[in-house]
Amino acid sequence: MNPTEPSAAATSTTDNFTQNPILQVDYSWRKWTASITEKSNPHEPLYTVHYRPFAISTHIIYKSTTTTPPTTIGTGTLHPFSINSHFTLDSHNKHHRGTLKALKRWKTSYTHLSPTHLDPSTGQPGVLTWTSDSDFKTWDFICLDVDKLPIAKFSANLWALKRIGVVEFMGPRRWERGVWDEVV
């Protein structure tokens, strides 16, 4: 082997770092939970999501399983008569409360203020926008940053029973755990 060429292991690591990270979402109907793993390592969950669907307002709890014991990184509340939902984000010693606000009633488009994506002109939390596109099999939700560049895409398989979707992170901050916590 030529000493100026990278080793196979180094090349593999470099290729993985330049690719977009993809998380896989597996759902258990019996337990009302979702397990979120890296697609390349599906046996070690990074996050768990617990649903309480039979309350007046559906409550969702997001936990990071990379710590012992698992820590709650966020909660969400879906309201039966409102198209807006509320959330809290407790990630990396930051506490943030917000509203996922629907922009239109008949088109899936939402915004929220992001503690991890600051507006460059003001230094305040920036507005992230979620848009969607769908076909017969999938429903894609795309998260756009302050500059309207995609930072994440959640592709939900409408016909799946267990592996319900994948989350792909994009852009220069695609490997930051704070961004992952917020998008999840």
Write structural notes for this entry.
The structure is a single chain. With 184 residues, this protein is mainly beta. It is built from 2 helices and 12 strands; from the N terminus they run H-E-E-E-E-E-E-E-E-E-E-E-E-H. The protein has helices at residues 8-18, 177-183; strands at residues 22-28, 33-38, 41-52, 58-64, 71-78, 85-91, 94-102, 109-118, 125-134, 138-144, 150-157, 163-169. The chain has a 12-stranded antiparallel beta barrel. Strand 1 (22-28) and strand 2 (33-38) form a beta hairpin. The longest helix is centred in the N-terminal third of the chain and has 11 residues, at 8-18. The termini are far apart. The model is unreliable at 1-15 (pLDDT under 50).
Mean pLDDT value: 83
Largest sheet: 12 strands, antiparallel, barrel
Could you tell me how far the N terminus lies from the C terminus, measured between alpha carbons in angstroms? 43 Å
Number of strands: 12
- What is the rounded Rg? 18 Å
Strand order within the widest beta sheet: 1-2-3-4-5-6-7-8-9-10-11-12
| Helix/strand class | mainly beta
Order of helices and strands: HEEEEEEEEEEEEH
User: Helix share of residues?
Assistant: under 10%
Count of helical regions: 2
Unreliable runs: 1-15
Strand content: over 45%
Global outline: globular
